[in-house]
Structure formats: structure tokens, C-alpha cells
Amino acid sequence: MSREMPRVVFTPSGKRGQVPVGTTVLEAARQLGVDLDSVCGGRGICSKCQILPGRGAFPKHGVTVAEDALSPLNDVERRYDEKRGLAPGRRLGCQARILADAVIDVPPESQLHRQVVRKAAEVRAVATDPATRLCLVEVAEPDLHAPSGDLQRLNAALADQWDLPPAACPLSVLPRLQPALRKGGWTVTLALHRGPSGPEILDIWPGFFEAPLCGLAIDLGSTTIALHLTDLATGDVIASAGAMNPQIRFGEDLMSRVSYAMMNPGGAAEMTAAVRATLDGLAAGIATEAGIDPRCIVEVALVGNPVMHHLLLGIDPVELGQAPFALATSEAATLPAAALGIGSINPEARAYLLPLIAGHVGADAAAVALSEAPETSDDLTLIVDVGTNAEILLGDRTRVLACSSPTGPAFEGAQISSGQRAAPGAIERVRIDPETKEPRFRVIGCELWSDDPGFAAALGPAGVTGICGSGIIEAVAEMRMAGLVDGSGLIGSAAQTGSDRCRPEGRTQSYLLLAGAATGGRDIAVTQGDIRAIQLAKSALYAGARLLMDRRGVDRVDRVVLAGAFGAHISPLHAMVLGMIPDVPLDRVRSAGNAAGTGARIALCSVAARRLIEENVRRIEKVETAIEPRFQDHFVAANALPHASDPFPELARIAPLPRVDFNTGGSRGKSEGRRRRRPR
Ligand code: FES
């Protein structure tokens, strides 16, 4: 043991070294690159630097820690303990000095770069590294003999106490500088943003200000907008809110919104104003709901497809409606949130827009790439973000490819005869008995299946109102598995299938899921038109994936990740029966939940993550489906259920499909495999 240069080991990082006796724990942490937080710069005010000193023998580290390894509790710590309370054994790292060999634990709440916790099965932790953080500075008082401005002395203090270059002070903050300095006794807390050309002061408070700084992670979808109020230091979501995208009234899908902009002078500006107003309203609402001072919301991260991105920025998306699909800008951007109409939060809050990948592949796909990190995977992974437009990524450590495919809104229940959005009363799960061809189902908002006792009572007066995206996918897949639909997508007649639920409708057939008379509502059926709509959507999705596989020169992928809020509800088996995704073992299909939203949250809380995705996006190879001649071939072949030519061996193993053909007056088909009852 050395009493001149004691050894110090920090846990859990394991970082170690020797420091001169008398060094504070905070100084030692800085010297050794240990992540120990501090807002007050070591003045014993913020308590962010709390540590837990170890005692006794640490054979693993080869260190024995004496009782007096750290200086005794000093007045600052005692005062803090009396006023606010220090947990037993805890010390303030900026006050405790190292006198002998020491082992110091840094608890998670004292780490500046805490991990953004991921819920996904394959957890990939991301360290927080926010662009804006609080910073306490003690500024020298003005001196008649050495005249200088308050801002200049503030900047001198920043250089001296935080080793920072001069910070820019916007005009909205400057008038508050002098009162804050005087009220705070020449001590102020700054919200300091790391801008591209140096620090920027976003806000100023007299004395020590300790409310957490927050940000908004916004996933701007063409149908829905989701917003997550997030603690910038921890990455924790404090509250979430969502709304329909108000631009829907100008057009359901992206191309109809581009057309609206083309056909109507001022149309793009109308759509810009509508979405900005909704974002601002959502931001104000979520702050109120969470009881957070809107002034503490200082960062925003936004993801969206190229059309959403351009309209939000006030850029006419007309160029995105035609080849070569030129983007006005594809790079990430940082700008005042107020410039995007988000004025209800801190007036100087900064908005970060993730980079776009290509004319049809947006910042939402970049956010999915940030969240799922295919570039770190040994397995060749196909990531599908299913929405009105499907964003598709295929890659591993060697290469990542991306494209988008126009699936249309059928997967969201639109263009379906009894379709509706996922809301209480919508059928979301369907099972059809392959013997009796009788269906049973579950609706959103009710735990029971339709054949469970008490279902009607549990359902409530609103009854069954329609079928949502996951429900129609399961219904069509179950019809295929039960031999009610053939490989070309044709519904058989009652005579062909042996089920009275198959009823003629013009020259085609439909399958009755629920007779309206039973519940006092309307009939809910799957029509031939519904199946065609699903076939078109799934063909677009599969063809996009196939194009990327062609580029990689592969026929198979190792894993499939279903992203998007809707992806979370798709049953992998049913998706494969329909041929929405390539054939892989079912246990290699995973749902990633709202990966675009997660990516936005990661970018919100980490400057390093922003730089990482900006770098990765440059490397992602873009495939433009609209001009790829093979897309049409893949699209046509993918029309069959599950596919006209691609083998689906894994699917055949777990769910052999009946060989039926209703096009040539074919008869009731024979199953390729044994009949089975599937679990609920
Ligand atoms: S660094 Fe603020 S109390 Fe120690």
C-alpha cells in the first residue's frame, strides 16, 4: 500500500489507477475516465456525485481498504446529510478525499451515462449522453477596476470550472442573465446544449436548479403520431401520448398527400401547419399530464418517413412523388424546436431530426436501424417495420441494405370490408377449426374467446365492431390452413369447402366470421376483395424483402424481426402462412415493438448514438423498389399463399397447408398433413 500514491479501484467499471494522496474521489474519477456525475462541478451542492466506499479485503482487486482510506465526513457532507439525508455509507465524491488504497462503487444513479434500458429479448444497452445537460457555475462579481460583461465572466467561469469554450447566449436568454446572477448570489445553473459550433445556453436559473431535464422522442407516422416524454439523464419514459396524424384528411397514404400538395396551391403548407399544431398540442398536453414544467423540456428527437419529414420542415414533398425521388436534404439536422412550431416547451429547445436513408426510406427506418443495430449482428437479419409503408432492412456485420415497399393500409384494417383500426370491439385474433370450419375469435378489450361462456356479457353493449389488421391477417391465414382458401387466394364455395359459412357474393365467395343477427350488429365476413387487398399488401412486403435478398445473393435469412406497433401484434405463424415474411424457424421471428420510437428515444438521449446513426446511414446500401425491374416479378410470384415458387420448408414442417384448388371447380381438398387443433 502506498500512502503517497494510493491505488483506487472503481466498480462496476473496474477502472483503476494511482492518484496523489488527498485527491477527491470526483477528481480521481475524472482522471481515470470513470463515469461519475456532477452538476455543481464539485461544490457539494448537487449530490449527483454520491459514491459508496468499500471496506476490508478485495482479493479480486488485490486491495485491502483501511477504515481511514477516505477523509472523514466533512462539514459540507454533514450539512447535506442534515438537510437532505445521505443514505447509509454514502459519501459525496467531490468532498471525500483518497488517503489510502480504496475501492469505490459508483451507484447507477450517480453515473452520468446511464443505460437506456431496452425491453427487447436481446437487450442492447445504450449509454445516455444527452446533448443538453445542467451545469452549475460560480461567476466572479463585477469589478469596477476590471470591467467586463456578465456573459464574459460567465464564460470565463465555464472555461475555468468546466473546461468549456465560450457558450453562445441567445437573445431570449440574455435578458435573464443579469437578474439570475444577482438573485443566485453569482451562482447560476445553465441548461447547456452541445451545439455543432460550441456550447449554447438554452436556459438559466438562479442558484442551483435540480429538476430533471426532459426531451420528447417523436415518431411521426403517416397514420399516427407517438410522443414519449423522456428523462434525458436516465432515458426513462415519463409519459407517452399519441394522436392521429391530422394530415389524414388530405390523403390516407403518402402518395395521396404528395398528390394533394401537387394539385392544390398551398396544399403542402396546409399539411405542414396541421402537423405542427398537433405536435405542439401533444407536447403541451403531455407536460401537463406528467406535471413537468414545459421549460424543462429542452430536447426533441424526431423520426418519420421522407414525406412526413419534408412536410414537417415545410418542404413541398412533390419531388418525392416521382423518380428519381430527390430529397431536399437527407442529412440529420439540429434546429430550434420552435422553428417546427413546437413552441409550448422550452422556447430554446433543440430538435434533432434523424437522417433519411433515401427518397423512400426515411428517418423512421434509420431509427429502426439505430434501435436494432443489424450492423452488429452475426446472423443475417431481416427487419420489417410494417405500416402503411413497409421499411425493410437486411444485414449483418458485413453489409446492411434498406428499401421501402408500398404495402398500403390493408394491414391496418383499411380497404377491408369489415376493417377498422385497432380499437375496442375489433376482432384481433381468429382461429378456425380445420374439421368443422367453425371460427372463434377474440376482440380488443375482452379477454374471453367468442366460444367461452360469458363472452357476450363480457363484450358489453358495443359488441363486435369490425376486424383490425392483425385480425384480418389471422383470419385469412386460418382460412388457408383450414382449406377454405386455396393457394391462389380464392375462397371456396359451400359445396367445395363443406361449410355453410362460405356464401356467394356476386361471382365470388365470402366467409362469414360472425352473423350479425347473433349479436344485433352487422355481419362480419371475409370477402374475396379483402383477401385480394391482403395479397397485394403482403406481395409488396415480400417482394421488397426478396429484392434485398437478391442483392445479398441469398435465398434464406437467419432471423426476422417484426418492428412497428403493428408488428408487435402479428402472429409469426400466420404471417408465414400468408407469405408476408420469408421462411425461417418460428423461434427465429421476434417482435421488436415500436423500434422506430425506441430509436428516436436513443437518439434523444445520446449524442454518441446520433453520430453513430449518421455514420451508419452513409454506409447502408439503398435499394429503390420503384425502379427495380425484378420487383414486379417478385410481386407477382408472392401473390400466392404463401408463395408461387419459393419453398417454405419450415412452414411445411409445423403447419402443412391443405392442397386445395377452387379455380377449376376443384373439390374439397385433402390436407398434406395430419389435422390438428391449435392452441388458443
Ligand atoms: S459534484 Fe455536486 S455535490 Fe459533489
TrEMBL record:
Disordered: region residues: 659-680
Domain 2Fe-2S ferredoxin-type: 6-110
TM ranges: none
Pfam hit, one: Fer2
UniProt-listed PROSITE patterns: 2FE2S_FER_2 (PS51085)
PANTHER family associated with the record: IRON-SULFUR CLUSTER PROTEIN, IRON-SULFUR CLUSTER-BINDING PROTEIN-RELATED
Superkingdom of source: Bacteria
InterPro entries (UniProt xref): 2Fe-2S_ferredoxin-like_sf, 2Fe-2S_ferredoxin-type, Beta-grasp_dom_sf, Corrinoid_activation_enz, Raco-like_middle, Raco-like_middle_sf, RACo_C, RACo_linker
Protein name: DUF4445 domain-containing protein
The organism of origin for this protein: Rhodovulum visakhapatnamense
